[in-house]
Amino acid sequence: SQTIHQWPATLVQPVGSPLSLECTVEGTSNPNLYWYRQAAGRGLQLLFYSVGIGQISSEVPQNLSASRPQDRQFILSSKKLLLSDSGFYLCAWIPGSYEQYFGPGTRLTVT
Amino acid sequence: GQNIDQPTEMTATEGAIVQINCTYQTSGFNGLFWYQQHAGEAPTFLSYNVLDGLEEKGRFSSFLSRSKGYSYLLLKELQMKDSASYLCAVGASGGSYIPTFGRGTSLIVHP
Known about the structure:
The structure holds two protein chains of two kinds.
Chain A: E1 3-7, E2 10-13, E3 19-26, E4 32-38, E5 44-52, E6 55-58, E7 65-70, E8 73-78, E9 87-94, E10 101-102, E11 106-110
Parallel strand pairs in A: 2-11
Antiparallel strand pairs in A: 1-3, 3-8, 4-5, 4-9, 5-6, 7-8, 9-10, 9-11
Chain B: E1 2-5, E2 9-13, E3 18-26, E4 32-37, E5 44-49, E6 53-57, E7 60-65, E8 70-75, E9 84-91, E10 99-101, E11 105-110
Parallel strand pairs in B: 2-11
Antiparallel strand pairs in B: 1-3, 3-8, 4-5, 4-9, 6-7, 7-8, 9-10, 9-11
């Protein structure tokens, strides 16, 4: 079966610390993968998407970066977190036609 | 570019019917999606419309008019568990597939 995993589920990090969030998918090959952020009370903001290994497109300038070292692995990183990086981070993929399916998400609080 | 507009909040009574509207402007169109998101959870896929008309799926139906840039999600026989945020998303055609999400409509169902 096709599934998507994210970890950790929750994270509290101090300002200026690094970040690494991981997303992996199972049951498919060469999926389109996406990272979104959802700030409190706001909509989904697309951060990065990837159509293949090593292929990353950034949608907005920010304090974050993404990498896709393996076909089914997508990583979101930061060298130094800002308060404004707090939010709900969601990884998504498209296993079939066009509908996206989301991982369980990581709630990040930067203190 | 794309612009998606939906009401911020709606309230309804258990057992009633509610219609959540979504209007969009897009340079290319490749389908309209509705997602449900309960508080603290990831969005889950509800429906997909690419042709004009009504798609029915149990208590939920979704309608699309491409010429008017308009869609609605109809929820019948409302239940308390339907209290959630409902996200409208539009897929653009051409190049990599990048869906754009509206800010979501928070639906509150009360007894």
